[in-house]
Design goal:
By secondary structure, this protein is of the alpha/beta class. It folds into two domains: 122 residues, NAD(P)-binding Rossmann-like Domain (Rossmann fold); 176 residues, 3-Layer(aba) Sandwich (Rossmann fold). It contains twelve helices and eleven strands. It has a six-stranded parallel β-sheet, sandwiched between helices. Strands 2-1-3-4-5 form a five-stranded parallel β-sheet. Helix 5 packs across helix 7 and helix 8 runs parallel beside helix 9. It is globular, with a radius of gyration of 21 Å. The model has no long low-confidence stretch (mean pLDDT 98). The structure holds NADP nicotinamide-adenine-dinucleotide phosphate (NAP) and 2-keto-D-gluconic acid. NADP nicotinamide-adenine-dinucleotide phosphate (NAP) binds next to helix 7. NADP nicotinamide-adenine-dinucleotide phosphate binds next to helix 7.
Length: 314
Amino acid sequence: MMIPDVVVAAPLPPVTMAALDAAFTVHRLWEGVSDDVLARVRGMAASTLAGPVGTALLDRLPALEIIANFGVGYDNIDISAAVARRLMVTNTAGVLDEEVADLTLGLLLATLRRIPAAERFVREGRWVQGGFPLSPSLRGRRVGIVGLGGIGKAIARRLEGFAVDIAWHGRSPQPDALWPRYASVETLAQACDVLIVIVPGGPATRHLIDAGVLAALGPNGVLINVSRGTVVDETALIAALQSGAILAAGLDVFEHEPHIPEALLACENAVLLPHLGSASDITRAAMGQLMIDNLSAWFADGRALSPVAETRYA
Ligand code: NAP
Ligand code: 8YV
């Protein structure tokens, strides 16, 4: 059997690159690939670590059949353009839920208990001059989850162990969900004093968290965003952090990664992480393996293991 040609959009972990090299004829886009070579490429390993996969790139790939994304969120891919070409698109749903949920709880506690600032306090030798100021607490809070999908549920399960009230918002009711659902983000924000955002990115959720939602969350409110930077109006968030319209924010994602506005960097009431949700060795390896398994299954018998909703063709 001919070994399929696969183009990789951006460098992936070494274990994943080695497995790709072992299974396919791999072309590294960042090293420059001629149009003659791209013309025979049947698969793409995409990721948010590279630029967007849009029509300009797809037009150079006339033989492309499948885009396997290294990540569950696929807002890096122009999904309408992919569907128009009847491409299969897969993601890494499921294998990162627990890892991202772990990070989210860490970020929540770091934000409320001011763990990064406290650590700096110790290293800078300031403890000898007196104790670190008392912090806000998770105790007695009601936590709202925006997006009760695979990761949202893993977050909710962890929050149960932290003995806090939980509520959520999503567009559709989920009869099996144990926690009360609010019909809008605004009403959820009004009813809670922590909002954890874990919806997909893209045009449908752009600035879902705006000045109005932040005002509803209120001056004791804490925003945690582990979804995509585009979901939060970053300008409105900075204004809310500066004015005290909300208490604090914990952010793993930003509108223009890796660039973060100076004004946000200056906010002492924000904890900022460099998109770490799934970034452990074990979970990134599992994501890479599922991405490769999707490519292999597709080339072997024309079926994918984890197709995204839009490309589950009848
Ligand atoms: P998922 O299982 O597809 O869940 C997404 C949830 O969001 C669904 O329950 C969906 O329910 C809800 N939703 C979609 N659009 C919504 C809207 N406009 N308003 C309210 N709820 C909405 O996805 P997942 O695996 O949990 O991942 C969610 C996202 O997290 C990914 O797409 C990615 O952007 C982000 N993520 C970030 C990291 C990181 O490193 N920080 C890692 C992994 C994932 P309804 O359709 O019923 O509304
Ligand atoms: C990764 C993510 O940072 O899965 C996602 O949607 O945001 C993260 O797991 C990303 O996919 C790496 O490409």
